[in-house]
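During the reporting period the student researcher (J.K.) took over the structure-prediction task from the postdoctoral fellow and processed the backlog of single-chain submissions. One of the processed entries is reproduced below for the supervisory committee.
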Amino acid sequence: MAPDPALGWNDALEAAWRGLGAPGRPGRIARIDRGWSTVMFHADDNEPMRTRNLYVAVAVGDWVVPSADDEQVEHVIPRTSAFVRRASFEGDRFEADTLAANIDVVFLVHALGSPPNQRRLERELVLAFDSGAVPVVVLTKVDLVDDPEPAHDELAEVALGVPVLLASGKQHRGLEAIRAYAAGNRTLAFLGASGVGKSTLVNALLDAAVMDTGVVREADQRGRHTTVAAQLLRLPGEGWLIDTPGVRAVSLWLSGDGIERAFADVFALMDHCRFRDCKHDREPGCAVQEAIAEGRLAPERLASLERLVAEEAALEAEQARFIRRGDRRGRRKPR
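J.K. obtained the following structure tokens:
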């Protein structure tokens, strides 16, 4: 049986599967629980397969081929996109944490009712651009404020043309604009901190109370994790949705061009500095410092870029040391 296009199968996945020799019957991971994957084989699959993840790294949204006896995942079809961050706990410091795979659009969810966080959004945009998916920002809980435009404009200032949508899961506002991105059986992923109204928004999009919702503290509008495991869920009509647990720490993984794209305005200024090796500090003819002095660039934005570049450089150095240690441990002494 051919893979189901209604489940999100597309030409790129078809080419990747055939590149593996077109083995077996591909299915899509809808959920992962303690080393077990729940795999769907068509959009109306009411009895998905449960199979083990032995010796493979998989994420919700992955397309996989089970073994002939259906006991374990045998092949993971190369991904078209993946939202990846560094694993959040110290023991896996050098491990990637893939939150969602084969996604077409990633919604970065922020909430009204608390001050807009430009610095967090900048980090999320770096990861989103590196994922290969199209980023969109969603400001939820518009029912909590009289005028959402100041917060909208503050986030749009650093989004650099990435759409910033307004929505309310409770009032079902802005849902059609979000659903429109699922046309053509595309897959949407929703990422954000706990308490931003992600689960309420997902329930509204699904027209069902699928995800648990929680309360937030009045003092800081922070919440607890109400989504405890990522899930692939079918949207009414067409398209798919991956809801992920709230992400407290937005830790960078190795970046492709995500930093350059998220800070395209700053890099454009750097091209006009007098010296190619300008440090953008006190050098004469620095276009970046000139823009800051004239109020065209916020100094906090340059500082944010510098922190992210330094964080990525430190991660690369740590990984190189980790790999060297592994090589030494695995190297046998000559006889």
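The committee noted the following: The radius of gyration is 22 Å.
J.K. will present the remaining backlog at the next meeting.
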